[in-house]
């Protein structure tokens, strides 16, 4: 009732970004499955969350709305994904990164399970690093951390992670309305560079007598 309307624009934009790639999509932090009906039936969606009671509501939504494109709904940990390398075309994480204990570890896992050429689509709160808003966010951190999320999470953390992670390219960082406190962020896992072909040996002519 609360988060549905507040984060609706972010959910729709994240789904639209994932749909541009399509294929098999992992949604990390699927919650009660609010975004599941928005995916096209041409995709295959796997949803995970750490909360079993929320997943029960997601499963109910899948049954009631006959969401045949949803492949599975299961308990999962963003920092330790139970999937093989390169299992998905897209990883979607909506309002998750600032809520997990070790955000960079979760981001590493997203890269691991997405295929080369695939994308990681994130909606996340971006903290202000300066000014009054930045001071308020730092002051609130002890409280919000105990509630399970961070008010203070600077964009520089995403930048630093991307710079240290081979094969990751930032595609988009766009503030979301109404106030721009949340952003849509897209990374691509770059294809591996082609292996160099072995140098050909010189051809030597042999005369036969």
Shape from CA axes? Answer: globular
> What radius of gyration results from the CA coordinates?
21 Å
Helix content: 25-40%
Percentage of residues in strands: 25-35%
Report the CATH superfamily: Vaccinia Virus protein VP39
What strand order characterises the main sheet?
Answer: 3-2-1-4-5-7-6
Number of helices: 6
Number of strands: 7
Low-confidence stretches: 132-137, 139-148
CATH topology: Rossmann fold
Largest sheet: 7 strands, mixed
Topology:
Blueprint: H1 3-6, H2 8-21, E1 24-28, E2 44-49, H3 52-65, E3 70-75, E4 88-94, H4 103-113, E5 114-125, H5 131-147, H6 155-164, E6 168-176, E7 182-189
Description:
By secondary structure, the protein is an alpha/beta fold. The chain has a single domain (3-189), classed as Rossmann fold (3-Layer(aba) Sandwich), CATH 3.40.50. Helix content is 33%, strand content 25%. It is built from six helices and seven strands, in the order H-H-E-E-H-E-E-H-E-H-H-E-E. The protein has helices spanning 3-6, 8-21, 52-65, 103-113, 131-147, 155-164; strands at 24-28, 44-49, 70-75, 88-94, 114-125, 168-176, 182-189. It has a seven-stranded mixed sheet with strand order 3-2-1-4-5-7-6. The radius of gyration is 21 Å and the shape is globular.
């Amino acid at each position: 009732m609360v988060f549905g309307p507040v984060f609706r624009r972010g959910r729709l934009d994240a789904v639209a970004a994932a749909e541009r790639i399509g294929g098999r999509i992992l949604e990390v932090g699927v919650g009660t499955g609010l975004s599941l009906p928005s995916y096209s039936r041409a995709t295959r969606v796997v949803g995970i969350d750490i909360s079993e009671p929320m997943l029960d509501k997601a499963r109910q939504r899948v049954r009631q709305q006959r969401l045949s494109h949803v492949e599975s709904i299961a308990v999962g940990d963003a920092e330790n994904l139970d999937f093989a390398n390169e299992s998905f075309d897209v990883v979607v994480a909506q309002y998750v990164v600032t809520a997990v204990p070790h955000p960079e570890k979760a981001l590493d896992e997203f890269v691991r399970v997405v295929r080369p050429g695939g994308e990681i689509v994130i909606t996340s709160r971006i903290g202000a690093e300066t000014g009054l808003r930045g001071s308020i966010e730092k002051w609130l951190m002890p409280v919000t951390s105990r509630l399970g999320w961070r008010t203070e999470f600077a964009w520089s953390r995403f930048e630093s992670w991307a710079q240290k992670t081979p094969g990751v390219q930032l595609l988009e960082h766009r503030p979301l309305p109404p106030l721009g406190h949340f952003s849509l962020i897209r990374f691509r896992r770059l294809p591996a560079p082609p292996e160099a072909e072995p140098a050909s040996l010189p051809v030597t002519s042999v005369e036969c007598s």
